[in-house]
Backbone:
């Protein structure tokens, strides 16, 4: 992993994966933003981490649900509809700054805009949910072929081992 701060799209994935069904408890951001603050700090966003308050939790939960809906969309049109509505409610207004585009609406505006930018360019094919049951973690597929199916190497290996056992079971019986 590089020391580069995580991109806003990366932060959106990080927010989604605050729920990890393989962890106990699964929702590590259920009652306080401690996990989220640590995760932001670990990914090069210490300043942002310091601004996250308990009062932000309802917004973070709602934002997480909205972005998850987008990642679960099979259809780009559906994803666009969800995003456009969410951007409207977040008062996410885009302005041209000397160093690029800036969006209002705080963290909510930023993450929604990052996901929207991705969907506008690439559609929804590369926004995925891990196929290694029961994991439901999210990922952005950056492979050249666009064939990624799992959130991490661990899930990939677990799925491969399961498939191997299944094949062995079929031939062995
Ligand atoms: Zn996974």
Residues:
């Amino acid at each position: 992993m590089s020391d580069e701060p995580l991109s806003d799209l990366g932060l959106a994935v990080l927010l989604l994966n605050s729920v990890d069904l393989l962890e106990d408890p699964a929702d590590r951001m259920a009652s306080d933003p401690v996990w989220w603050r640590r995760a932001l700090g670990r990914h090069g966003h210490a300043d942002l981490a310091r601004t996250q308050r308990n009062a932000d939790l309802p917004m973070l939960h709602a934002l997480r649900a909205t972005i998850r809906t987008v990642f679960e969309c099979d259809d780009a049109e559906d994803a666009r509809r969800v995003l456009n509505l969410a951007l409207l409610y977040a008062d996410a207004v885009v302005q041209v700054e000397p160093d690029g585009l800036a969006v209002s609406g705080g963290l909510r505006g930023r993450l929604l805009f990052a996901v929207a930018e991705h969907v506008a360019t690439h559609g929804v094919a590369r926004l995925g949910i891990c196929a290694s049951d029961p994991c439901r973690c999210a990922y952005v597929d950056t492979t050249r072929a666009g064939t990624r199916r799992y959130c991490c190497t661990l899930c990939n290996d677990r799925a491969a081992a399961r498939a191997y056992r299944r094949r062995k079971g079929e031939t062995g019986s």
User: Anything to note?
Assistant: The first helix runs from residue 8 to 16. The domain at 8-172 is CATH 1.10.3300.10 (Jann2411-like fold).
